[in-house]
């Protein structure tokens, strides 16, 4: 098991760097009218089995994106799970998972701000153990808003870093984005606490 000694700057900077390095080829499903993956997951066990990363309602984990400690999440219909979008806005979410030492404190919004250019920060807030920052800056993603959300939360001594990017016309770049990341944290904590999952949970492409 790989355990990182908690250093807020190190962990959060690493998470932001990973999010920024997602190949554009892996984001094509956001604008494609043809599903690019036939396997959309509602949840997947990560962090050496310590947590059940669970997508927010209406969103799914792209099984093809999974790497140790990393996952891409998008609206379910863009991943081939027809009828599962639940009228949620189009968005791309990255999640990075890093194991921490026992007793590591929950992250704070101020920690995220400390690894960002303060001139880019629009707002920062802490909500029930979830640190959130809305910032503005170049994403390198054509057609996406330059306003996006970053977040982090801790569950079972595993730090989950989140970033949410949305097209320019999506409400997810505004207040809705914070709600989506909060839902990701809430669903993950709930499934982890209830030990509901032992393997990836798929979403059928024919589910309505």
Descriptive report:
The protein is of the alpha+beta class and 208 residues long. The protein has one domain: Protein Transport Mog1p, Chain A, CATH 3.40.1000. The chain is built from 3 helices and 10 strands, in the order αβββββαββββαβ. Strands 1, 2, 3, 4, 5, 6, 7, 8, 9 and 10 form a 10-stranded antiparallel sheet that branches. Strand 6 and strand 7 form a beta hairpin. Mean pLDDT is 77; it is low at 1-37 and 204-208.
Give a nutshell description of this structure:
This protein is an alpha+beta fold.
Number of domains: 1
Please report the total strand number as a whole number.
10
CATH class value: Alpha Beta
Computed Rg: 16 Å
Order of helices and strands: HEEEEEHEEEEHE
**Separation of termini?**
39 Å
Question: Structural class, judged by helices and strands?
Answer: alpha+beta
Could you estimate the helical fraction of the residues in percent?
10-25%
Total helical segments:
3
Largest sheet: 10 strands, antiparallel
Unreliable parts: 1-37, 204-208
Our estimate of the beta-strand percent is 25-35%
Query: Overall pLDDT, averaged?
Result: 77
- The CATH level-2 architecture is identified as 3-Layer(aba) Sandwich
According to CATH, what is the topology? Protein Transport Mog1p, Chain A
The geometry reads as globular
């Amino acid at each position: 098991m790989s355990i990182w000694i908690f250093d807020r700057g190190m962990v959060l900077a690493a998470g932001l760097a990973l999010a920024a390095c997602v190949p554009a080829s892996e984001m094509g499903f956001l604008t494609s009218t043809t599903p690019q993956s036939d396997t959309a997951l509602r949840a997947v066990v990560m962090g050496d089995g310590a947590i059940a990363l669970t997508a927010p309602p209406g969103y799914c984990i792209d099984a093809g994106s999974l790497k140790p400690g990393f996952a891409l999440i998008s609206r379910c219909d863009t991943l081939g799970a027809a009828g599962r979008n639940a009228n949620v806005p189009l968005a791309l979410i990255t999640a990075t998972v890093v194991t921490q030492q026992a007793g590591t404190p929950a992250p704070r919004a101020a920690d995220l701000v400390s690894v960002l250019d303060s001139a880019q920060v629009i707002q920062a807030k802490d909500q029930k153990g979830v640190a959130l920052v809305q910032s503005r800056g170049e994403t390198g993603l054509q057609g996406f808003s330059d306003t996006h959300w970053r977040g982090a939360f801790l569950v079972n001594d595993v730090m989950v870093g989140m970033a949410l990017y949305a097209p320019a016309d999506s409400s997810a770049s505004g207040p809705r984005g914070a709600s989506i990341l909060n839902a990701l944290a809430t669903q993950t904590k709930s499934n982890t606490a209830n030990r509901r999952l032992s393997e990836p949970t798929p979403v059928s492409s024919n589910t309505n």
